[in-house]
Amino acid sequence: MSKGVTPRSQDYARWYTDVVQKAELADYGPVKGTMVIRPYGYSIWEALREAFDMRFKATGHVNAYFPMLIPKSFLSREAAHVKGFAKECAVVTHTRLMADPDGNGVVVDPDSKLEEELIIRPTSETIIWHMYKQWINSYRDLPILINQWANIVRWELRTRLFLRTSEFLWQEGHTAHATSQEAQEETERMIEVYREVVEDEMALPVIVGRKTEAEKFAGAVDTFTIEAMMGDRRALQCGTSHYLGQNFARAFEVTFRTQDNDQEYVYATSWGVSTRLVGAMVMAHGDDKGLRLPPRVAPIQVVIVPIFRDESRDRVLQTATSLTDGLQKVTVRVKLDDRDTVSPGFKFNDWEMKGVPVRLEIGPRDVEQGVAVVVRRDTGEKQSLPLDQLAAKLPALLEEIQTSLYQQAVDFRAEHTQRPGNWEAFKTLMKAGGFARCGWDGDPETEAAIKAETKATIRCIPLDENPSGLKCVYSGQPAKYEVVLARAY
RNA sequence: CGGGGCGUGGCGCAGUCCGGUAGCGCACCUGCUUUGGGAGCAGGGGGUCGUAGGUUCAAAUCCUAUCGCCCCGACCA
C-alpha cells in the first residue's frame, strides 16, 4: 500500500476514493458499479442501522421483509413512479444456465425464458402496496407501520463507492394511514428522526426542508429531505421522507371501510436512508490523513498502541492489556493493537486513516511514570494522562470530540453559506462552491434555467423559510419561496 | 448512445514507434537487525503481455477482428 492519500485540495474525488479504500471501508466488486462493503465499513453501517432502528421501533414501527423480485407488471401501475425508475431497472428474463454446447463455460438456457419477466426492486413501493391491498380492509387494520432493511438495485451509469452504486443497502419505511393528516404527520415525524440521527450520532448538521416539484420522489405528493454540506462544499441528500397521498393506493386499489361505512383510499408514506450515509461521513469529516469518525458511531473509539523493545515488551504489553480491560468496563469500544509485524509509526497512520477518535500510546517511559499519551484524532492534540484516570476521563473526551466534529461541520457550512443578492453574485458563489440561500419565484422554468446555467439545483425549501420581502435570484420577481441552492452529488 | 483513453505478476506502470532471453516500484515470503510518526539490509516466489486469428525463422511489439474497462456529455438515495 502506498503512503497516504491524494490531498483534498489537489483532487477531492480521488481523495474520497483513496480514503474509502485505504480505510478499508469498501472495495470495488467485479460487476461495474457494485461495491463490497468491508468489515470496517460494514460495522459503521451497523452502528448507523442500530441508531435508526431503535428510533423506528420507539415510534411504533416494526420490521418485515419483502421479496427482491417483482413482477414486471407491477411497475406499470403508478405512472410517475414508473417514469422515475424504469430506466434503471435490472430485469430477470431466464431462470437457468446450461453448459455451452459449443465449448467451455455456461450459457443461458433459452428454454428457461420467463413468461412474465421479473425486475429486481429499485425500491419496494409496488410489491408492498400489492400486499397491503390484501391486508387492509377496514380502518381497524390501520395504520400499518412497516420498515424493511434491504438491498436494492438501480442500474446507474456514473457510480461512486457508497454515494451511488448499482446495488446498495438501505432502509425503507412504508406506512398506510386512514387520514391524510396522519400520513403527513408520519412523514414529518420520520424526517425528524433522520435529522436527529444524522446530527446527533453522525455529527453532521443538516438542513431540513421540502423538495420542489422537479426534485421530489417519483410518485410522491410531497418530499421532505435532509441536506448536508460535504468537504468540497457540495450538497448531499442524506435522507428523504415522502407523503404519497393516495397515489399508490389508487394504483394498487387499496381501499378501506371507514367508521361511517364509506369506502376510501388509504393514505401512504415512505421514507429511506442508505449506505450513502457512510460516504457522507467520509466527505463531511475526513481530512488529508483520512477518516475522522464521530465517537458515537465509531466501531473502535479508542485504540491502544504499545511501544516496546525486546527487554520492555512484557512490561508494556501487560500494562496495555490491563488498561484495555479496564476501559472495556466503562463501555468504551477499545482495541489493543498488539500486532508484532508492523511498527508503531505505521499503526499511528493506519488508525488515523481509519478515523479512530482517540489513540493511546504506551511505551516504556510511560509505564515507568504510570501514564499514557492521549491523542485526539479531530485536532491532533496530545497530552499525557495518568493511567488510573483514563477510565474516568475518556468517556468525556469522546463526547467532547463528538461535539467538536459537529461544531467544525457547522462552522464550515456557515463559512460557505451566503445570501447572494443578485444573479451575478449567485453564479460566483456556485462556481466557488457553497450553499446559497435566496428567493425563488416558484416557477419550474426558473429552476430549470438556474440548473442549466450553473448546474446548481434547489436542494430544498427549508422548513424555516421566510420569503417575505425576498426577490427571485434569477428572475427578480417577488419570491414565492426561500430556497437553498447548491451543486449536489 | 456521441467524444477521448487504456488492457503487461496482487496494485501502479515501463517496454510497443524501430519484432530478437519480459522489466521496474509497491505489495508478498524467509532471515537478521529494528520499534516514541508509514523501519533497514540480504535473499526469494509470482506474469502463456485481455482474447482469437494472421504476417514472420522469431510477436507484448506489426496487421485484422473481438471482448472488457476507465474518463467526459442527457438521469438518480
Explain what this protein looks like in three dimensions.
This protein has helices at residues 12-22, 39-58, 79-85, 125-135, 180-201, 247-251, 276-285, 313-329, 344-353, 364-369, 387-415, 423-432, 444-454; strands at 26-28, 35-37, 62-63, 69-71, 91-94, 97-99, 106-108, 113-120, 144-153, 167-177, 207-210, 222-229, 235-245, 255-257, 263-265, 267-274, 302-306, 334-336, 358-362, 371-376, 382-386, 417-418, 435-440, 457-462, 481-486. It has 489 residues and is of the alpha+beta class. An eleven-stranded mixed sheet has the order 3-9-10-16-13-12-11-24-25-23-22, sandwiched between helices. A five-stranded mixed sheet has the order 18-17-19-20-21, with helices on both faces. It starts with 11 loop residues before the first helix and ends with a strand. 42% of the residues are buried. It binds one RNA strand of 77 nucleotides through residues 1-4, 32, 84-85, 87-88, 123, 152, 154, 156-158, 163-164, 168, 170, 217, 236-240, 272-277, 305, 307-310, 342-350, 352, 361, 363-366, 373, 489.
